Structure formats: structure tokens, C-alpha cells
Amino acid sequence: MNHDAYPDNYIRGILNSVKSIAMVGASPVNVRPSYFAFKYLAQRGYDMIPVNPGHVGKDLLGKPFVASLSDIGRPVDMIDIFRNSSHIMPVVEEALTLDPLPKVIWMQLGARDDAAAAKAEAAGIKVVMNRCPKIEYGRLSSEISWMGVNSRTLSSKRPPAPTQGMRLSLNRMSVGGGDTAASDRAAKNKSEQS
Amino acid sequence: MSDRLPGFSTLAVHAGAQPDPTTGARATPIYQTTSFVFNDADHAASLFGLQAFGNIYTRIGNPTNAVLEERVAALEGGTAALAVASGHAAQVVVLQQLLQPGDEFIAARKLYGGSINQFSHAFKSFGWNVVWADSDDIASFERAVTPRTKAIFIESIANPGGSITDIEAISTVARKAGVPLIVDNTLASPYLIRPIDHGADIVVHSLTKFLGGHGNSLGGIIVDAGTFDWSTGGKYPMLSEPRPEYHGIRLQETFGNFAFAIACRVLGLRDLGPALSPFNAFMILTGIETLPLRMQKHCDNAKAVAEFLAGHPAVASVSYAGLASDKYNQLARKYAPKGAGAVFTFSLKGGYDSGVSLVSKLQLFSHLANVGDTRSLVIHPASTTHSQLDDAAKVKSGAGPDVVRLSIGIEDKEDLIADLEQALGA
Question: CATH assignment of B15-287?
């Protein structure tokens, strides 16, 4: 997979097929991006599992924190890593010990580790780096268009009026693209500094 | 779902717009409302904290304006856009995100007269210092770079003479200096030139001109190319540092490659207030649907009129990049192969007085201070748009006393030529 620019169909396929998502680095602090990405994905119907050893015993929007991936105790479809690029590899290595393996490993906006991605892909796991699943879900459903963002999709169909907790259709016509050169450069600079 | 790329005309009609979920209305409704009801307190808090997608108040965002924003972002090939009340408002909001008092930005000397005034006087009072450079001398941009330089600003097709700017050469200077290149693409419109394809990081427009196309609604827009890394070196704290007004959120970290457009919305538009009326957004959207058809006609007419003027005995010179003999014709072939725009100048052998006489005798051309209308327009820049410049600056910016500027409309070209012929001949 070319991790500089993902085809919309690749991202769409992942977001349409996964049901459970373990979020590593989920924060209970309600102004952190991991908190509101967790909340959004839960509202859109994903079965969310917060993973953070610092918060075991508490819960996040009613879901109990677990300390590590191996503590989840049931299969998960996707692991969403909310950690800096320098902390990705140990999480991927732990994910590779799970049975069954997750289908997708997703690294958040700003996070990229090509060596870790290669390891996961060698085991047959799909990898997304330096993207936010909330932004991608919002983009492919065009919900993000409320903010003037170019969803790079078109549709002549009348969408249902959105209600809370509703899954949105991601099957709009793609305008193509997907390049995020600037954010990739930003992530690269950060990993060089660390 | 295929990832096939729709063409420009398809995007001009469809991008950003879908049938209204509530009513099924196919045309984009005018959401003429100041505010939007929250689902509950939690939803309100999420919206105010930039944590959820949705509407709060029309000064920050509006569903009609959002369609316009996505439409122009798609046409320009950007990641996001923000519509504002005018082209001037777009320039203030952009620079507010980039400059602190005492900082500098480099601007091409050949600019719309209103921008020259805004940069020289209003922005100076904010402590934003403009340093002028000459688009015909790329090295003059390099020489102007200092450690306080935060941006470079150019027009793709420059006012008033319709000269074509070498965007790629100047983007190389900007990249080397580590600053974003801002391109005012008003006179080209994305139909003729897409500056992002040539290295622009931010595109601004006066929507009042060719994009609206009808001269009935003011508007401006900022397009984020998503190409600039705002985190390097702490030069752009509005983007890279925690924002106290949003609980310490870092915009680039949170919004990635559309962080600049979000900064313009939540730090610029929210706090400075130049919001676009949803009614104007609707009028401009309607205009954009026919942009490709209109722009081609504007260009074809302009070329025919320029050729007529170049052959007329009363005319001293014509400055139109679409003419094979023009100084900027090579650049026009590279950057604007479909046409060199529809705004250009010419000078009369009779000087200032014959310029004034020509304007008074024209019957179809309207004498007013706008460009990019469906109607053909004429103005004498030295006594109007550029009148606040001194004589030397007038000549340098292409608005000498003998110069007349035309904005060619979409009438029949034979009628435009006949009107000029009678006004020049008598």
C-alpha cells in the first residue's frame, strides 16, 4: 500500500467493514482529540474499547478502560493508535500476538511508522497511517462538509436527515485524491525530532 | 464506487451540493438564519469545542455558505475553504493567522489598487509590514526575504494590465524561505488557472468577480491547499501552539491538512466577524454553475477586442497576454492555455484626455469600478481605482495616466467592437 495517498475505496472499505475498534491512548480528558474521536465513532455505531493503562478501573462513555490489547479478551477488528510515531512499534508488536489478528491497524493523524506498517502488512493486516478515522468518516459521508472541508465526493441522492447515533452512508462518488503531503511532512519532522 | 475523477464542469455544478435531507430540495436552500438549535447541552459543548461537525451561528458557519466553500475548494483542488464577506475580508483573515505585529510579508507590486491601499495603510496600522517586489524580476522576491517574512502574496493574472505571474518561480522562492505562497486568483478563476497545481499554499478570491459572474453580490473566499507544514520552527503559533480560546487545542495536530482553513474560521472569522450573507452565497453558487461556459466566452471576446484595438490607429499599445506579441504571451501559454482572462489595459495616443473622452462616448461599456461582470466594463484606473497612488507608483503598477482598463463581458463581440470603434473614431 502506498501510504502517501490512500484511494477512497481503501478507506471506505475499512470503515464499512470493521465493527469493533480498540483505541490505544484513548483519553478521558474531554478536550483531547482522542476523547472526541472515540465519542464520535461510538455515536456512529462502532463498538469502541478504550485502551490506556493509566485509567484502568474507570470508564470512557460507559466503556471500561483496559490496560493493554491482550487484556481485551475478545477479537477486535481494528486497532486505532493514538500515540506519537515513536510509540507505534511496541503497540503493533503486541497486536501481532493477538489471536485472531486484528484486520486493520490505524495510526492517528500525525503518526507514521513505516517499519511497523511493513510488519503488520506482512501479517496480512491492512494499515492506515497519519489519518483520523473521524475525519475520514466525516469526509466520506460528507458530514464534514459543514466545516467547508472538501469531502472530495459527490452525490445526487437525498440523504436521510441525520439523527444521533445513526450510521451514515459512505458510498458517495469519489472525486479522487487523498494526498496529505503537508501533514505527512509534519509527521516526518516530528519522528525525526523524537 | 470508482475513484474516477469528474471534470471541472461537473464539479462546478455538483461539488458540495446534494439534495436537502429535510425537504428534498435540489437547488441549495438559502439558510437565512443567524443560529441553529442544539440537540442538548453535550452537543452544544462539543460544537463549541470544535469536537463535532455542525452549525452554531452564521458568523462561524452556515449550511448555504458551506456548499459554496466546498464547491470552490473542489474547483481549486484545495482541502477546504472559508467564505467571507469580500475579497478584502479574505486577505485580512488570511494574514491575521500568519503575522504578528512587527512581521513582514512580500507582495507583488502589480496588484489590484484596493489591495495596495489595504496593505500599505490599514495593515501597517496592525504592524503587518508589506515589502514590495516585482513579478517580472523573481530575484526581487528573494532579496526581500528576511527572518520576519511570514508570507508571499501575488495575483495569478495581475491587475490592471492582465499580466501573467510566474507562480512556479515565486513558489520556489517561498519554499526556500519556508513561508506560504498566497495567490489571489480572482482574475483567472480556477477555470483558467489553478494556482495550487503550481505551488500555491493558499488561494484567495474576490467572489464578486468572475466566480459570481453577475456583479450583484459581494463575497470573498480563502482556499487551503493543505500543502504547508505549519509546525516547523514555531513560526506560525496560531496553527502550531495550543489555543487558549479552545481549551488548548492545537489546530494542525487536530485538523491536519485543513488546519489553516479551520484557523481562518474559528480564530479569524469568529473573532473579526466579516461573515458572508447566506443569500449572497446562494447568488454566487448559482453563478459558479456556469463558470466554465462564461469564462471561455469572456476570454474569446477579450482576445477579439484586444486584436481589434491593437490594429486601431488611435491606440498606442495593448497590454493583453493573449496577444502573440505580448510580453506575457509565453507565460499565458503555460499557465492559462484556455485563455488569458478578460481584464486588460490599453493606452491611447491622445493620452489622459482621449481616455476620458473614450469613456464618455461608450454606449455598451459601463463606466464603473468592478471587473468580471457579464457586462463589459471600462474604467480609467489613474483617476479611480489607482488614484490614491503617486504618479510613479501608478506607472509601476501599470496604471499610468494614458491607460484605460477593460473588463470584457459575454455580449456579442461584434457589438463590443462596434461600440469601441464609434467611441475611438469620432
Answer: 3.40.640.10
